[in-house]
Amino acid sequence: MMNWLKNILGRVYAVYGLLLFVVTLLIVLIPIWIFSFFPDPRKTRYFLNLGRVWMKFYMPMIGCPVFRKGLQYFEKGRQYVVVCNHNSLIDVPVTTPGVPGVNKTLAKSSMGKIPCSA
């Protein structure tokens, strides 16, 4: 009986998270579109700042607050490579706003072919 309830609640939570993502994405789409006309590196910097604000609201709203530690290891003006293990698709929304400074996210193309697991 409990597994059945957990399954139903898990699906309701997934729909809630997806709907919340779509609604918040619709809110940030207009600024993203406007920023796309700016030249780089200004476009990237504005997009990252918007993404940071977006994820600062979205992640706690889905019950997944993000806590950053180790920021003292990042020195301003230096370049770093941050590697994630890609255990889930949540890596990008967590790391992009979590890494200080301008950053880009890269992933193997095969990651897009892996179905999400619960």
Largest sheet: none
Which structural class do the helices and strands define? mainly alpha
The oligomeric state of the chains shown is: single chain
**Span of the ends, CA to CA:** 19 Å
As a percent range, the share of helical residues equals: 40-55%
Mean pLDDT score: 83
Order of helical and strand elements? HHH
Radius of gyration: 17 Å
- Overall shape: it is globular
Total number of strands: 0
Please indicate the percent range of residues in DSSP E strands (runs of 2 or more). Answer: under 5%
Number of helices: 3
Low-confidence stretches: none
How would you describe this structure to a colleague?
With 118 residues, the protein is mainly alpha-helical. 53% of the residues lie in helices and 0% in strands.
Name a few traits of the molecule.
globular, 118 residues, single chain, mainly alpha, 3 helices
Short description:
The protein has 118 residues and is mainly α. It is 53% helix and 0% strand.
